Every structure is written in structure tokens, then in C-alpha cells.
Amino acid sequence: MTSAILMSAVTHQFGKRSTPLFEGLDLDVATHESVAVMGESGSGKSTLLSLVLGLFAPTHGQVSVLGTDWAELSSRQRAAHRSAHLGVVFQFGELIDDLTPLENVLLPSVWAGTDPTDARTRGEELLERLQVRTGAQSTAVVSGGERQRIAVARALINSPQLVVADEPTGSLDERNAEVMSDLLFDLPASQGCALLVVTHSRAVAERADRVLTLSTAATEGER
Ligand SMILES: Nc1ncnc2c1ncn2[C@@H]1O[C@H](COP(=O)(O)OP(=O)(O)OP(=O)(O)O)[C@@H](O)[C@H]1O
Ligand SMILES: [Mg+2]
């Protein structure tokens, strides 16, 4: 069966003289699997996600998502592959302040050409499930935790086959972190969707099928 993520012999370094962040990293994530990525600040977690998203190419090795090797696609094809199959929660939310929370959530559905009425219904449901008040006229006024939850709703709006999330519970209190974890870790079973989630929280990581720990010494361990 096709893997959600297949990384083989991936080495990545920024600049010729720097130490590689990863050397010969192999990672195979199945289509219904959840994997947590842990590791101290600077160990390369966000970089790993960027490689998975095809946002940049590894120095050596291959990265395939849902059976497609990023290296074989043009930048336009990579954008289309992401839009059709991937949901992304960036570490710092990356929301547009001038839009309402719901408009932010709906943006990927506009790019994907989804029926606007269906998308709106799903967007409202997602925000409700994540307990975000949808009344705000501007995303600029919502709290840090609400921003994070809006970013997760936006990642899920197109029913992606792979969700990649960079510290999605980082600015949430315990209760909201649990609501968020419930939603994310239900995805493999409820939507047949793979999940790669960076977290500093042991409690969150323990809910994943597997934990990948990156270390700054460029050695990787898996449990
Ligand atoms: N575009 C870049 N050019 C040069 N160096 C980079 C670039 N992006 C990241 N780095 C370096 O690579 C290392 C890993 O960065 P990365 O953002 O992947 O860490 P991280 O594990 O996500 O950390 P954090 O937990 O703080 O988010 C850092 O030392 C960072 O300075
Ligand atoms: Mg990071």
C-alpha cells in the first residue's frame, strides 16, 4: 500500500559548512498512522515538516507523499498536490488578520474549488468543534490559543489525506490542548488520514502511534 510519507536516506544541511540536521533519515508513515516528532529547539523538527511538505528539497535522498516524489513535480504541481491532499498547521499560525476566522478557515477550499456552501458548513462545524467563537470580524482580535485552533480548522477544511502540524497545542491551556488532541488523533480512524505532529508535550506525543525523536547530534531514535 502507498505510504502517506516515505523518506529515504534523507540528509539535509543549510549551507555547505554547517553540520547536517539529518543524515540518512528513513521514515515511513502509513496512511492511517499518527507520528509525533519530538526534540529540543533547533533539532530540525520544522525543517523536517518543510521537507515533508515539499517546501524545500533535501540535500540528498527522496521524499514522497502519497506515492508522489516531490522531486518529480514542478513548483506548480507541488502546490496542486499540497492543495488537494495535505493540511498544514504552521508553527506560528500564519493567519490573515484582515479576514474573519471563518474566512481564514475557508481559504484552502477556495483554492481547491470546493462548493462554497458545503465548505462554509464544514468550516462552521470545525470551528464549533474546536470551540472558537465565530463572531469575530477580524482575526487580529482573537487570542493566541484561538489562532492555533483556527489554523487547525483551516488545515482540515479540505478533508486532507495527510495532516502536518507544527506544535498545534503550543499556546493552549490543558483543556483546549485535550480538545485539539482529540480532534487530531481521531483523524486516522475517522477520516483515514495520516498525521505528523510536532510537539513538546509528552502527553500529546503519547497519543501518537509512534514517536520520532530528533536530536541536535543528528541521531534519531524511534520507539
Ligand atoms: N532556512 C534556513 N537557513 C539556514 N538555517 C536554517 C534555516 N531554517 C532552519 N535553520 C536552522 O536549522 C536548525 C533547525 O531549525 P528548525 O526550525 O527546524 O528547528 P525546530 O526543531 O523546529 O526548533 P523549535 O522547537 O525552536 O521550533 C536551526 O539551527 C535553524 O537555525
Ligand atoms: Mg520549529
CATH homologous superfamily name?
Answer: P-loop containing nucleotide triphosphate hydrolases
Strand content: 15-25%
Compute the average pLDDT.
Answer: 90
Widest beta sheet: strand line-up: 6-7-8-3-9-10
Kindly provide the name of the CATH class.
Answer: Alpha Beta
Q: Which stretches are poorly predicted, pLDDT < 50 over at least 5 residues?
A: 218-223
For the biggest sheet, the summary is: 6 strands, mixed
Based on helices, strands and strand pairing, what is the structural class?
Answer: alpha/beta
Order of helices and strands: EEEHEEHEHHHEHEHEE
Protein described:
With 223 residues, the protein is α/β, with parallel strands linked by helices. The protein has one domain (32-55, 74-221): P-loop containing nucleotide triphosphate hydrolases (Rossmann fold), CATH 3.40.50. The protein contains seven helices and ten strands. Strands 6-7-8-3-9-10 form a six-stranded mixed β-sheet, sandwiched between helices. The protein has a four-stranded antiparallel β-sheet with strand order 2-1-4-5, with no helix packed on it. β4 (60-65) and β5 (68-69) form a beta hairpin. It is globular and about 50 Å long. Bound molecules: adenosine-5'-triphosphate (ATP) and magnesium ion. Adenosine-5'-triphosphate (ATP) binds next to α1.
